[in-house]
């Protein structure tokens, strides 16, 4: 089709087009010519007019605009089909992004595309597939397709090296008397990883909710039984139950925040905020918490308003989480320094907001993992500080939406510094 279109734009193409159109209009033309001849023989006086009308009709038929579909050039269809039929199987295999292997009725490789070679190494022509893929499920699949058993068409196959990858393999005959067969490998590793993450997440979330729920159920039983006539115990248990319901509510709030963020992966364009003003209001709102924990907050902002692209409420949530952590976990340091600066270390200019505490710090091995959902360095410390284990993963999600980065620097015993790098443009 592409060739035909190109021909239409050249001089040769114009001639071809005219011929095709005349051919397409042959019935209309014959009718017209016959009509003219009959009319002139009846009238007798139109000897010169008749040929002129024939020429005009021919010209109109050749150059009048008409749909391409109504103008098949004899032989054009078969010519296109021929070019597809002539297309090399190797080209087709190369155009497939998934690993693909063509083999013969003896199970020997005829051709493997580049993706197959990259995934499985040597697949030279002549290599025996049952020897190459020794997993029983692959043997069954190859055997089934070679023996024409249509009941087995796919198999799950795990390639262990160099890194473990899970494939869904389908086998089918090429047919048309070729006695050739094809294996196509669909990589399922990413889908499986996401499924596993989702299952882990649901298990973690259920566990986090189940623990306070079990505690509340236990206290209800005690209040109805042994503590029925003990007002002091009742008061104490009711307080614990209230704390546990608070914990469940915080967890549900954090889960809802995460799910809302996942549903809106891109930031609405156009909104801008003064980051100094946002960080300032976070410090004000957490004043009581800082005071309760004996923390003095120091501000170290560059002069003037500093505008960045962002959503005010979400950025408030980011700095609130980081400040809360600094006050909770860095309590022993007695001091938190919040600074805003211009960053020039990365490829693009940034506005950097750092929240630094002087508490126990975080051991190096935990740093890459603390933004994972439900990851805590010390589970009891987090729970006693009303933590859900989701704060930093919410921070990470919001920053991703803002094309921003979080960097964490810490040394045990020296405190921790969390820096948010927001794009300055
Ligand atoms: P949590 O709700 O438990 O606070 P986060 O996701 O906010 O959850 O933090 C994950 C973990 O990272 C915390 O449980 C804590 O162990 C650790 N952490 C976070 N901030 C600090 C900090 N400033 N100093 C020491 N540890 C911290």
Give a structural overview.
This protein is an alpha+beta fold and 425 residues long. The chain folds into four domains: 2-81, no CATH class; 89-187, 2-Layer Sandwich (Beta-Lactamase), CATH 3.30.450.20; 191-263, Orthogonal Bundle (Helix Hairpins); 272-423, Heat Shock Protein 90. Helices cover 51% and strands 18% of the residues. Adenosine-5'-diphosphate binds at residues 321, 325-326, 329-330, 357, 359, 362, 370, 376-378, 382, 387-393, 416.
Tags for this entry?
51% helix, 4 domains, 425 residues, 5-stranded antiparallel sheet, 5-stranded mixed sheet, 18% strand, Helix Hairpins, binds adenosine-5'-diphosphate, Beta-Lactamase
Please write out the topology.
Elements: H1 2-8, H2 11-24, H3 26-43, H4 49-63, H5 76-86, H6 89-95, E1 100-104, E2 109-112, H7 114-120, H8 129-132, H9 136-146, E3 154-159, E4 165-173, E5 180-187, H10 189-224, H11 231-263, E6 272-274, H12 275-285, H13 287-292, E7 296-301, E8 307-309, H14 312-329, E9 335-343, E10 350-357, H15 379-384, H16 391-401, E11 405-410, E12 416-423
Parallel strand pairs: 7-9
Antiparallel strand pairs: 1-2, 1-5, 3-4, 4-5, 6-8, 9-10, 10-12, 11-12
Helix pairs in contact: 1-2, 2-4, 3-4, 10-11, 11-16, 12-14, 14-16
This protein binds adenosine-5'-diphosphate.
Adenosine-5'-diphosphate binds at residues 321, 325-326, 329-330, 357, 359, 362, 370, 376-378, 382, 387-393, 416.
